Amino acid sequence: MKITDIKPFPVWVGTRNQMLVKVETDEGIYGWGESGLSSREIAVKGMVEHYREFLIGRDPMQRGSLWQEMYRSQYFEGGRTMTAAISAIDIALYDIVGKKLNVPVYELLGGKHRNWVPTFASGTGSTPEEMIEVAQQIIAQGFDCFRLHHSYGREEGENIFEPREAIAETAEGLIKAREVLGPRPVIGNDFHHRLSVAEAISFCQMMPAHTLDFLEEPIRDETPEAYETLRKMTPMPFALGEEFASKWQFLPYIERGLANYIRVDICNVGGITEAMKVAGWAEAHYIDLMPHNPLGPICVAATSHMAMAAANFSWLEIRESAGESTGFYSKEVFPVQPEVTPGRVTVLDRPGLGVEVDEESLTEPFRHSEMPHLKRNDGSHTNW
User: What is the pTM of this model?
Assistant: First the structure.
């Protein structure tokens, strides 16, 4: 079997672009993958087209070797754009191999550890009362784990994020929510690396014991030593890694005990091949996976197959619940996809990923779309 074509599809689905990739073969078997470098999809499309030139004619069964060749094929190894493209192609290759061997992808990864994949939801409110209300709606749906956020303000059409205001308002909402909801729900919060070390410490110090079960990405990740400082000053469990683009970026966070949940993103880190290496590394340190999963059904399926095959797993992020409605899981575009119900994903017992794409429904063209460019009240830029 040989690869005959690799086709990138940057298209609009629901409320955002999805960067889909189709790999075709001379046996009529094809596979679908997805990239996760959101708002920079055209850069990934270009990288996929670079790889296409030397992957045509190659054997898709040799996915590990092809991964190494893609990663090592130029002097400047790695980088988010490169691994986002590799991720999409790698996922598509697993889809092809599963179809060729007539087995679900999780069987290629060692078989399943669980019958379905636990999931967590996300909800936001602008007041403590709204935060409590959305949390109660999520719980009533059937979720036992969720992230609960306080919305950041807007001023004169601009996105404003003032850290000290945000941590005070978020803390107030979370404390009141825990008092109302009781000890059973698992509650997390994601500051999306918008804080400094000092601000993150202030927030953690505001949290009474067992208010928050995990804090996601409180500060930027470029300097592991900053997380070491943060770790020394708080016992708060950290969920980290959604923006990491290789196992090497995970290295200090796993080896130094800085992450308590691994937010590996299968569509950014290098696909299933690289994600399973991260999973094994984390298992050796008794750290559970909590994968980042903000995209469409292909990402859901690929991540769920990994979750089925990984012993060390907690919850998978899901983007449809009482807390948010995104339209990412379009049944028109993806007529066959994993079954997403409140609190769980059930992987279809079909060869490959178990996802089908209606190419004729890929009619919404790519739209230039930017993530919010956040500023503080004084006009200076901060992180989204």
Answer: 0.96
Q: Which whole-number Å values give the CA distances from 79 to 46, 100, 127, in the listed order?
A: 14, 31, 39
Residue 85 DSSP class: H
| Tens digit of each residue's pLDDT (9 = 90 or more) over 107-164 | 999 999 999 999 999 999 999 999 999 999 999 999 999 999 999 865 555 689 999 9
Joined tokens for residue 298: 């292909």
* 343 Cβ contact list (under 8 Å, min separation 6): 118, 119, 141, 142, 143, 144
**Measured between alpha carbons, how far is residue 36 from residues 17, 57, 87, 144 in Å?**
10, 26, 8, 26
Radius of gyration, CA atoms only, the chain: 20
Name the phi and psi angles at 259, rounded to 5. -115, 135
Active-site positions read 192, 292
Complete domains list, the chain, with CATH: 3-103 (3.30.390.10), 107-351 (3.20.20.120)
The chain-wide mean pLDDT, for the chain, equals: 95
C-beta neighbour count of 368 within 10 angstroms: 8
Q: Work out the end-to-end distance of the chain between its first and last CA atoms, rounded to an integer number of angstroms.
A: 44
